[in-house]
Amino acid sequence: MNRRIQNQFIANYLLMFSISTMIAIVAFMILVFANEVVSKTLAKNNYTAKSLMRDDYKNINTALVINNGGGVQIINSSYKVVLSKGLNTISKEELTTGQFTDFLIMSKSKGILYSYSIEYNPNRKFWLVITFPTSVRIDFAVVHNKDFTSVDTKGVVGIIAAVIIFYIMLLAVSTIIYSKLTSISIINPLKKLCFSARCLKDGDYSSRVNLNLKNEFGELECIFNEMAQQIEKEISLRMQSEENRKKLILDISHDLKNPLTSIMGYAQFCSNKLDLSKQECGTYMKVIYKNSLRANNLITDLFELSKMESSEYVINKTKVDICEYMRQEIGTLIATFDKAGFIYDFDIPEKEVFAEIDVNQIDRVLQNLANNARQYNPKGTKVTINLVDKDEKIVIIFKDNGIGIPKAVAKEIFNPFVRVDSVRNSHRGGTGLGLAIALKVILAHGGNINLKTEENCGCEFIIKIPKI
Ligand code: ADP
Hints:
Elements: H1 5-41, H2 43-46, H3 49-52, H4 62-67, E1 71-76, E2 81-86, H5 97-108, E3 114-121, E4 126-133, H6 153-201, H7 216-272, H8 278-309, E5 318-321, H9 322-340, E6 343-347, E7 354-357, H10 359-376, E8 382-390, E9 393-400, H11 407-410, H12 422-428, H13 434-444, E10 448-453, E11 459-466
Parallel strand pairs: 6-8
Antiparallel strand pairs: 1-2, 1-4, 3-4, 5-7, 8-9, 9-11, 10-11
Helix pairs in contact: 1-6, 6-7, 7-8, 8-13, 9-10, 10-13
Bound molecules: adenosine-5'-diphosphate.
C-alpha cells in the first residue's frame, strides 16, 4: 500500500501547519503596516521639537504638547532649564555639561518610558526638549507608563483588536476547511461501506463496494467484496441444493408411485377375482414381482446414495494391481456384452500398476457402465475398455459407439434421476441413480469421472484414480 491513512494524516497536518504559518506571516505583515499607520497618528510624531521650534521660545506652541500628555523644556547654553511646562523628566533646574550629555545619551536609548524629541536652536543658542510618555506600541513590547494618557490608545487598540480578530477568523475558517477535508476522506468510504453492508444484510448479495482507494480502506474494500462474493456463492449453492432436494423428493415419489400403483392394482384385481386361472394368476404375479423388483432397486440405490452422502461413509480400500484387477473384471463383463451381441476390444498394459481401491465399489461402477451400454444401445455396438498409466493417475476409458447422450443432458448426467428419456428408461427399468452412485464412489477414491459424448456418436466415460 503506497498511501496509507497515516500518510494522508501527516500530509493533511503538514498542510494545516503551512496554512497557519502563512496566516501568521500575513497577520505579522498587517501588524507592521498597522504600526506604520499608527505611528503617523501618534502625538510624539506629530509634535516634534523640530516642527515646534521658534527663535523666540516664548512663541513655541506648548499647549499642543501639554494637551496630548507631553511636556516642553527649554535649556539654554549654560544648561539651565529656563522654561518647563507639562511633563518634566529633568529633575534639576540646572545641569552640568556631563549631566546634560548623559541626558542626551539617555534620550536616544531604546526601551525607556519616555520618548524625547530634542532640537538645538543655533541662532538663539538653546535646546528645545519635547517629552511624551511612551504609549502602547504595536510590537511585542508593551510598556507601562504612569504618565501615559489614553490619547494615542484608541487607534492603536482598535487596530490591534482588528488584526487579532482577523487572525482568529482566518485560523478558524482554515481549521473548519481542514477538518472537513480530513473527515471527507474517512467518512465517505465509511458511508459507502455501511451502505453496501446494509444492502448485504437486507438480502442483496450482489452488493459490492467501489472506493478506488489505495489505503487501508482499499484493503477493506477488497476483503468486503471477497466476503460478499463468498456469501453470494454460498447462498446460491444453498438455494441450488434446496432445489435439488425438492427435485429429488419429487423424483423419488414419482418413480416409486408407478410400480406401487401397478402392484396395488394387480394385487387388488387378483384378490377380487377369485376365479382366475393359474396361467392368468402367474402373469399378474410376474407383473407384481417385476414392479416390486423395480421399487426395491430404486430404494436400494437410494439407500446406497444416501449412505455415500453421509459423513460416516467410509470405503474399504485395499492395495490392488489395477491392471490385473481390470483383466479379471473384464472377464466377468464379457458375458454381458456377448448376451447383448456387442463387439468389444480391451487394452490393458501388461505391467503392474498399483492403486488403493474398494474392489466391491469399483466393481459396481464398472458393472453400471457395462449395464448402461447394454441397456441403451443396439445390438452390434462396439465397446472398448482401455487402461492408461498416466503420471500419478490411472485412467480407465470406457467407450461405446452407441446412441450417445445429448450435450444438454450430458452436463447433468451425474446428478440423481437424470435420464435422457424417462419414458424409454422407465420402460427399460433404469433408476437414474447409477451414474450418481458411480460419481460418489470415484470421488471417495480421490479421483473423478467425466463423460465425453454426443448424440449418435456414443459415450466415453473417463475415470481417473490416483495410483500409489
Ligand atoms: P439408469 O439407472 O437410468 O441407467 P444411470 O445414472 O446409470 O441411470 O444413467 C443415466 C442415464 O444416462 C440413463 O438413463 C441413460 O439415458 C443415459 N446413459 C447412460 N449410459 C449410457 C450409454 N452408454 N449410452 C446411452 N445412454 C446412456
